[in-house]
């Protein structure tokens, strides 16, 4: 747990506001539009979660998928709009990358459409050899039939 003023970062899964996380991901994010609640719950259960709380209300979130030995994927990073511009995302990324069980990893990875500048401040770089990377992607996997018309 890390504390700054009225804000706390915790990895305690029992504190995560699943309803808020689901609401944000399913309606406001560009990467998980329409994601079902059951998938959000499963992703939280199978990840290392970081929640930022202000007066016991969760206002930011990120999760790590990792083997705790060689690799970590950072995903689902967001700060609620009322709390943006206060340095919370910087503090959150700093705390995640300094988290003791995540030290010594060979590789960290993430995908972002618009936050490259934030991550570069914490040592992230563009993929060194993108020709070596492959992916299997389902574009818009949570869209309903009516969303695709």
TrEMBL record:
Superkingdom to which the source organism belongs: Bacteria
Domain N-acetyltransferase: 8-139
Keyword Transferase: yes
Keyword annotations of the record: Transferase
GO molecular-function terms, A-Z: acyltransferase activity, transferring groups other than amino-acyl groups
UniProt key word Transferase: yes
Pfam family, one: Acetyltransf_1
UniProt protein name: Acetyltransferase (GNAT) domain-containing protein
Organism: Olivibacter domesticus (Pseudosphingobacterium domesticum)
